[in-house]
Design the sequence.
């Protein structure tokens, strides 16, 4: 049985600029099922990062609705109704975010970088967070580097640490914006293996943006975004509207 975990309805995003309004997303409808490894492909400027930022609540939509199922009871939370602060809190606990540029803190060791989101969210006791961070480093096969600073490991290794950090609070959903964009193809392949493992063995749902059409065959589904429009058709909504909770 498939259950939807993310749903976007008629999402529009307009940026106001000095040169006038710019429509970055046009009537986007999207249903993502639990356990999918969804790829979003499209040219530079197509709106891929904007779309991810609507899903993880980094940015505010102009109109439309974004629902994300909550881990505990499967009820859908309306992300579009939350304040910026509420979204930030929610994201920290419920979504793992991975960027092209890794974004590790340079003065913290690898294990400390992974502990940080746990310590911020209070999801784990501080005594537990180090053990959990070490387990996550083991998952990405970097445990022997735990006490190094990010500058002393390779780009591919840094990205694996960033993935481990994204998993810190055990989110159901990971969103990754061009996570392999600055890596060579062999290293990119290895990062892909890590994501596949998380989907297949841990049941995570992953949405990944990429320029690289060659990777599209490795997703369980891929959709193309062009000029702010999703080109491929979507499945029917599986969220029961009566279970949607407002905050
Ligand atoms: N804060 C902003 N203000 C105004 N326009 C913006 C802003 N952010 C993005 N845009 C515009 O919205 C469009 C979509 O941007 P977005 O960053 O989502 O594209 P993208 O598909 O992620 O591109 P890339 O592959 O280069 O990362 C672009 O034309 C961009 O210039
Ligand atoms: Mg982008």
Sequence:
């Amino acid at each position: 049985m498939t259950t939807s975990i993310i749903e976007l309805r008629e999402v529009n995003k307009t940026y106001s600029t000095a040169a006038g309004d710019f429509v970055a997303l046009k009537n986007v409808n999207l249903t993502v099922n639990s356990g999918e490894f969804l790829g979003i492909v499209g040219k530079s400027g197509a709106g891929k990062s904007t779309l991810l930022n609507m899903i993880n609540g980094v940015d505010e939509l102009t109109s439309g609705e974004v629902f994300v199922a909550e881990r505990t009871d499967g009820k859908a939370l309306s992300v579009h109704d939350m304040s910026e602060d509420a979204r930030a809190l929610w994201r920290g606990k419920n979504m793992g975010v991975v960027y092209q540029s890794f974004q590790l803190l340079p003065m913290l060791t690898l294990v400390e970088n992974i502990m940080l989101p746990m310590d911020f969210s209070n999801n784990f006791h501080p005594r537990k967070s180090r053990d959990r961070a070490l387990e996550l480093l083991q998952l990405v096969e970097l445990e022997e580097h735990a006490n190094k600073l990010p500058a002393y490991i390779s780009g591919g290794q840094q990205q694996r640490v960033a993935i481990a950090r994204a998993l810190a609070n055990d989110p159901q959903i990971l969103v990754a914006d061009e996570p392999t964009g600055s890596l060579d193809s062999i290293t990119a392949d290895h990062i892909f293996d890590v994501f596949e493992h998380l989907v297949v063995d841990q049941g995570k749902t992953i949405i990944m943006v990429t320029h690289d059409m060659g990777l599209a065959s490795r997703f369980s589904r891929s959709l193309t975004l062009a000029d702010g429009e999703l080109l491929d058709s979507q499945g029917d909504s599986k969220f029961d509207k009566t279970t949607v909770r407002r905050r």
In short: The chain has one domain: 4-243. Residues 4-243 form a domain with the Rossmann fold fold (CATH 3.40.50.300). The first helix runs from residue 48 to 55. The pocket of magnesium ion (ligand 2) is lined by residues 48-49, 177 (CB under 6 Å).
